[in-house]
Design brief:
The mean pLDDT is 93. It contains twelve helices and five strands. It has helices at 2-6, 20-30, 43-57, 77-83, 96-109, 121-124, 127-134, 142-152, 165-170, 172-183, 200-206, 229-236, and strands at residues 12-14, 65-67, 89-93, 160-164, 250-252. The protein is mostly helical. Helix 2 (20-30) packs antiparallel against helix 3 (43-57) and helix 5 (96-109) crosses helix 12 (229-236).
Length: 258
Amino acid sequence: MTAAVLRQNPAFHAAMSGPIAGLFEGMIAQVSAGSEMASMVSYDQRRRLLKGLFESYYADHPESVIFDTNRSWTTKFAAILTVFPEAKVICLVRDVAWIMDSMERKFRQNPFEHTRIFGNPQQRATVYSRVEALSGPNSLVGFPWNALKEACYSEYADRLMLVDYDVLVRRPKEVFDLIYDFIGEEHFAHDFSKVEYDAPEFDAQLGMDGLHRVHSVVEPRERKTVLPPDLFRRFSSMSFWRHLTDSPVVRVVPELKK
């Protein structure tokens, strides 16, 4: 949702997760210890090569500010800040139970499709196995949760901004004003009643229609969970960011934004 709103600003480019993070990691692997090429590529050459990935990939984009979306960037702070010393990371966070609820709803809305999100029949068998699969340390929900926690308690936390989904949908203008302050850009008049983003071809490859589709109006939508009570309680306890006390991370969360 954050990218869908930001892209209304003609000076910004923002979209769903792209391939840069994977290419970034792959290039580091190619020149790291154990590779026969490692001794041929100096530290400065590595930095230039990694910067060149971004420059080449975004060469056709005239926008002055690029938001590259990927859940793994919070694990690569040291490398990113070496390549782009002024870089900042913005993370939209939400109660993990409601994330699981949304994923389960999407699964049920596609009953005649065996989505690729689950690797085998055992994972997709029941709501319990599906949620367990999503919460694994290298899975769709579990990995970014671990990655975010790493960043929040790292020495780079002051470059990180957390935006709470529930605050965003209730007070979008105030939240985006804070985002603009954080990145040091001139404020823009966004239209929160006409937000557009969808990626039907990408979602079709995953076998989960509407995974990246956003609502056109930014507003709260009350609903009852489809998760069993025990699962909902279990994942509701995982919103660690609401209780950060020893991290300089910039936060937009209910207890700080009333």
